[in-house]
UniProtKB/TrEMBL annotation:
GO terms for molecular function: protein-disulfide reductase activity. Residues 1-104 form the Thioredoxin domain. SUPFAM superfamilies: Thioredoxin-like (SSF52833). Pfam families: Thioredoxin. Keywords: Disulfide bond, Electron transport, Redox-active center, Transport. The gene is trxA. This is Thioredoxin. InterPro entries: Thioredoxin (IPR005746), Thioredoxin-like_sf (IPR036249), Thioredoxin_CS (IPR017937), Thioredoxin_domain (IPR013766).
Length: 124
């Protein structure tokens, strides 16, 4: 198994570095069970990426901090910056496309824009 269980205790350290994909799910969720093999296969193919699973039942506060209203929801980070969030069971091709796009990003520009946004929020 190439995925990591994400909790409120290990979340911040997990998303802080590299490319991280988080799957917000619950055991009772049919679409979550349909998406799980797609997520698992991608985690086995892309061993340089962190694939985390957030059980929304066990981690209600963490899911709430993301504003999760529908599951499964896939969230993507790169270098600690949240870059993508989408609800629904994505097909394998969409996950692969997302990974390709995340790898291709110029993080210098994105980091500067993200820091600017954080500074603006802090000033408000």
């Amino acid at each position: 198994m190439a995925t990591t269980a994400i909790t409120s205790q290990n979340h911040d350290a997990t998303v802080s570095d590299g490319i991280v994909l988080l799957d917000f799910w619950a055991d009772w969720c049919g679409p979550c069970h349909m998406f799980a093999p797609v997520f698992e296969k991608a985690s086995e193919t892309h061993t340089d990426i962190t694939f985390g699973k957030v059980d929304t039942e066990a981690e209600q506060e963490l899911a709430g901090s993301y504003g999760i209203r529908s599951i499964p929801t896939l969230v993507a980070y790169r270098d600690g910056i949240p870059l993508f969030s989408q609800a629904g069971a994505l097909p394998a091709e969409a996950v692969e496309d997302l990974i390709t796009q995340l790898r291709a990003l110029d993080m210098t520009e994105i980091r500067a824009e993200y820091e600017k946004q954080l500074a603006e929020r802090a000033a408000q």
